[in-house]
Amino acid sequence: MGSTAKERGVQAEESRGARTTIVDVAVAAGVSRQTVSNALNRPHKVAPDTLERVLREVERLRFTPHASAQQLRRQRASAFGFEVNPSGHRRLGHILDEFLVELTVSAPAHASHLLAFAPDPDDVIAGYRQTLASGLVDGFVLADTRHADPRPQWLIEHGVPFVSFGRVWDRPELTRWVDVDGHAGVLGAVRHLAASGYEQIGWLGWPSGSPVGDDRRRGWADGLAELGVTGEAPTAESVQDLDEATGAAERLLDRLGTDAAIVCASDLLALGALRAVRNHGLEPGRDVGVVGFDDTDVAAAMQLTSVHQPVAEAARTAWDLLVDPESTSAPVLLEPTLTVRASSIRETSDADSSAVLDPP
Amino acid sequence: MGSTAKERGVQAEESRGARTTIVDVAVAAGVSRQTVSNALNRPHKVAPDTLERVLREVERLRFTPHASAQQLRRQRASAFGFEVNPSGHRRLGHILDEFLVELTVSAPAHASHLLAFAPDPDDVIAGYRQTLASGLVDGFVLADTRHADPRPQWLIEHGVPFVSFGRVWDRPELTRWVDVDGHAGVLGAVRHLAASGYEQIGWLGWPSGSPVGDDRRRGWADGLAELGVTGEAPTAESVQDLDEATGAAERLLDRLGTDAAIVCASDLLALGALRAVRNHGLEPGRDVGVVGFDDTDVAAAMQLTSVHQPVAEAARTAWDLLVDPESTSAPVLLEPTLTVRASSIRETSDADSSAVLDPP
DNA sequence: CTGAAAGCGCTTACAG
DNA sequence: CTGAAAGCGCTTACAG
Questions:
Q1: Domain(s) of CATH 3.40.50.2300: residues in chain B
Q2: Percent of chain A at pLDDT exceeding 90
Q3: With 50 as the cut, is the pLDDT of residue B52 above it?
Q4: Could you write out the DSSP letters of every residue in A265-296?
Q5: For chain B, how long is the longest CA-to-CA vector?
Q6: Closest nucleotide to the alpha carbon of A29, via C1'
Q7: Residues B12-37: what's their mean pLDDT?
Q8: Which whole number is the average pLDDT over B236-246?
Q9: Angle (nearest 5°) at CA B175 between B87 and B79
Q10: Rg of chain B over CA atoms, in angstroms?
Q11: pLDDT tens-digit readout, B221-236
Q12: Chain centre to alpha carbon of residue A300
């Protein structure tokens, strides 16, 4: 094999099978590799004509810096970890799947990327520690925060940057988070139902104790207070099971009487409400209003009015809080919108047109 | 600031705020850093007692190699890209979200990790090229393959490793893929319905032309042939819209007569079928059998029998095909299972117990 | 404004 | 079997 010529390494940068490096660009532009780096990272430090020449070659050779070399030198991964978990008993909605996608979409705008990782359920913190220690990420995006969540505590103690989608319930003042205002979303739904002519408005929610559920329920209660309703308004509780939700909704309907509507803490509960309405021989929308929460694909399929979370905006905000810590230090609470469909429209005219309505 | 002492860098490795490196381990174990590297990567080349001493220090100091340093030196990212797309008009089911999670769960077993990326929809290939050029990934996991998909072509041309979840329809012989046998899944559903006593079995599917849909439909046709049904069996077509699916299912029911069942190409179509059954004043399961496809959370909520894809197994197989290319070179077709629920049970006895039934 | 030097943390031939 | 040398591709002070 007469490979010595090859080994001299004097081939044109185009013909090599290997990757294009900063040196290839430097040679092509007739400058040192430091100048190429400066042109890319600190353009103001480079003479205008040199800059232009370098950038032209960068373009022509389609040079893309090698990420690991940058990471190693900068001691920064420009990446953040996002915990995922196998579904098993997944909730309806997959809001978190959508959030992951939107985080990924917004990542390049912040010169970052997203690393999915699945920690061992028996030692979640170990998964975070390991991922961080590998240098693959600079910090984390948390989701699915809950009471007594060990993660914020650990991250704060170790000075690890993070942002949370969902309030950090135990110490909301301490940390950066972005959340959707469930209270406002449900309040808007109550106002919409009242304006649509439903007289009685009941609540179908989860057993109290879940911070998210309790927050949404307060939105309903405040909505009733705003309408001047006093005394015992009918409510019902159910876990995430359609049959149980249906039963709870039927009992709720009995207590609500005519001209009633039901606001639900989730689309799955609303599915139970829809079924209960039909079991009573009634028509959702025309006879009984039903509103869900999360605006899942199922809500769209079932013509169910539902509170819509601005997930893409939440993802963009999460990046802002994480990558530009100066920009906003306060927590961010986003306003949901109400996607109105046939299940909350009394007139039959345009019952199958769906529209997005901002809460007043 | 009397920081000169600090600059001498003679502090114990424990007390430094900085990361633990291979040198810290070497010093602690009294060997050179090369030996630590060998102990970790080529243990057979290290004397047993040295090995033990080194590994003990690795453990004690919780040393985790810096990923970018490894990647740079090895010229390998040990990571693979997975394309995600903002939902918009998402299908019911989110099988791909589940696949992403399962890929992430299986990644550590292959000493790899998964990078999510969202290419520009107007130039998907550019997104793949860019992600590859950055050195962040060694290859890709494809999903959602379709006819005239430009990605396999481009990847093959550039010698980029990849595996696909879903057949590479245009050149199945050329590439590595893992898929779920939709034909077998629907065939199993037909057999189950026949065994349950439904006499007429219709098909509710998508307009022909989609390779996935056509494959599933053939499973239904072959099932009928197996049962000795000849002539024109009733079918109906619908796109992914619940109202349209309901209408199509109602017409299908009229043609099927009594003792009928409907096999559907998706859970959403099955939702339409369920609604059509109720619109006819009938009860799903008891009067008309309905089977969906994908076993989504909605199927579980609605007590809908559905064909279940072994997504976790598909993810593990994808890693095998990608990371250990020697292990299996042939495409892999996995058998789905049938999750039986009330919608395909005629007796009312245990109508709400769900069971998983392997196809015969 | 430009380039020579140093170094991020690791692995891989290669001497000893 | 162990360690000294080289180098992956890049960036950042720092001379000139």
A1: 79-180+312-334, 182-310+337-357
A2: 64
A3: yes
A4: SSHHHHHHHHHHHHHTT--BTTTBEEEEES--
A5: 94
A6: C2
A7: 78
A8: 82
A9: 60
A10: 27
A11: 999 999 988 777 778 8
A12: 19
User: In this predicted model, what pLDDT tens digit does every residue of B258-316 receive, in sequence order?
Assistant: 889 999 999 989 999 998 998 898 999 999 999 999 998 888 888 999 999 999 999 99
Query: DSSP letter at B46?
Result: S
Looking at this protein, which amino acid is placed at residue A93?
Answer: G
Report the length, in residues, of chain A: 360
Residue A123 has pLDDT above 50, yes or no: yes
Query: Please, which residues 331-360 of chain A have a Cβ atom closer than 8 Å to chain B?
Result: 352
Whether chain B has a CB inside 8 Å of the CB on A114: the answer is yes
Protein fold of B4-65: 434 Repressor (Amino-terminal Domain) (1.10.260)
Enumerate the H helices of chain B as residue ranges: 4-7, 22-29, 33-41, 48-60, 67-74, 95-106, 124-133, 150-157, 182-195, 211-226, 242-256, 267-279, 297-301, 311-323
- Select the residue from B25, B297, B302, B303 to test the A interface by mutation, using most A Cβ atoms within 10 A: B297
Q: Where in chain A are all domains bearing CATH 1.10.260.40?
A: 15-65
Task: Report CB contact under 8 Å: A297, B90.
Answer: yes
Superfamily of domain B182-310+337-357 in the CATH hierarchy: Response regulator (3.40.50.2300)
Strand order in A289-293's β-sheet?
A235-237, A200-205, A260-264, A289-293, A305-308, A337-340, A355-357
Contacts of B85 in chain A (CB under 8 A): 101
Q: What's the token pair of residue B113?
A: 């990790």
Buried/exposed A41-50: b ≥16 CB within 10 Å, e otherwise: eeeeebeeeb
Record: fold of A15-65: 434 Repressor (Amino-terminal Domain) (1.10.260)
Does the domain made of A182-309+337-357 have the CATH classification 3.40.50.150?
no
Pick the CATH number of A79-180+312-334 from 3.30.70.260, 3.40.50.2300, 3.50.30.10, 3.40.50.10840: 3.40.50.2300
Maximum CA extent, chain A = 95
| Structure tokens that stand for B308 in this block | 């279940």
Q: Where in chain A is the domain with CATH 3.40.50.2300?
A: 79-180+312-334, 182-309+337-357
pLDDT tens for residues B75-117?
999 999 999 988 754 555 578 889 999 999 999 999 999 999 9
